[in-house]
Amino acid sequence: MGSVTDGFAAGGRSFFRTYKRILLFCMVGTAGAVFDFGTRSALLSLGLNPAVSRGISFAVGSSLAYSLNSRFTFAGNRSAKEKVRATLVYLICFLIAIVVDGIARRFISSGDFTLTAAWVISQAAATSMNFLLQKYYVFSGSD
């Protein structure tokens, strides 16, 4: 039976492991977001519909993020099961991003920053859900 200090030490390690994962997830997410936003900007400049642009850009950013998160953040094994779970998570997050983007564009007054603001809001919603689902579903056995 462990002492009270053993329990605190274990809790501290768990806290710092989670903190490290959140930090890595944010760094990877930033890289994914740069690719996502850049792709959307390029597609919009080519005249593509905002919703279609958002969908394609999300897929680009998400593909990069999965690859990096699997290797660095969650130490995944990139098995078929993991990839199927990740695909399901990204589909859920994709739907969240598209729906939130559409809602945000509807409620934000038309202006120079409407599409950017809608992207930021939809990205925040999808990223929050993505972290939770990856941590507790996709990579639940990776520790």
Please tell me about this protein's structure.
The protein is mainly alpha-helical. It has four helices and no strands. The protein is elongated. About 3% of the residues have low confidence.
Architecture blueprint of SSEs:
Layout: H1 4-45, H2 50-73, H3 80-107, H4 114-138
Helix pairs in contact: 1-2, 1-4, 2-3, 3-4
Query: Distance N terminus to C terminus?
Result: 23 Å
How much is the radius of gyration in Å? 18 Å
Estimate what percentage of residues fall within beta strands: under 5%
Q: List the domain count as a whole number.
A: 1
Low-confidence stretches: 4-8
Q: What is the residue-averaged pLDDT?
A: 85
**Multimeric organization:** single chain
For the secondary structure, the number of strands is 0
Largest sheet: none
What's the quick description here?
This protein has helices spanning 4-45, 50-73, 80-107, 114-138. By secondary structure, it is an all-alpha fold.
What brief labels describe this structure?
143 residues; 0% strand
